[in-house]
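JOB MANIFEST
job_type = single_chain_structure
chain_count = 1
residues = 248
[input]
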Amino acid sequence: MRAPLIAGNWKMNGSRSLIDSFAEALSRADLPEAVTVALAVPFPYVGAAREALPSSVRVAGQTLSDKPDGAYTGEVSGAMLRDVGAQMVLVGHSERRTLFGEDDAAVLARVQAALHQGLTPVLCLGETLEERDAGRTEEVVLGQLCAVLDVLDSDARARLVLAYEPVWAIGTGRTATPEQAQHVHAAIRARLEQYGGALAASMQVLYGGSMKPDNAAELLTQPDIDGGLIGGASLKVDDFLAICQSAG
């Protein structure tokens, strides 16, 4: 049985006061015992989030450098993330792929850097509207997945979390229907079978496309959706907690 994971991605938003608000709310919240909660906060707030949030809440970075250290002004290494308390890191988010030019090779290098530092990579996969309209959803999504899994060994594969995030449903107000999301999640699960039945059975695959309190329950009841990577709703304490409750 795969435990549900609800991970918030604050993107380039947030503040110390927002962290304090979440810390207070999460410390009081009576969330379902089976649900794991994580927050991916901007780099300057990772340490503060780890200090303020309950220990049960995982803290994640939003990306990392593929380099361990050196003359790379503005970059943040996996070792630095771990040093300030991060346990997870997003890798290959659609905004990193589209706005910052990270291709499959760059995503793979970042996954490997995260694994080397003992961080759990949340590998993001997703297609654009043009790719979906062209009937290329599975080709694109499974291609992004295999570009990483084909290189990793079985132990490393087992340490990943996946997040399917249709690019056309991020920040647009559009959401894949539960059936559309489940179809892609099932295709991902089927491809995982090629790397071993145990991996396919245990791998958490999150949905990351405009999940909100009013659609979370229907999405989360789909058989191959194991949680959510939450964007805008993760900046609102009540909305985020409501989604966490839906995962129980």
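[summary]
The chain has a mean pLDDT of 96.
The beta strands are 5-9, 36-40, 58-61, 88-91, 120-125, 161-164, 205-207, 227-230.
exit_status = 0
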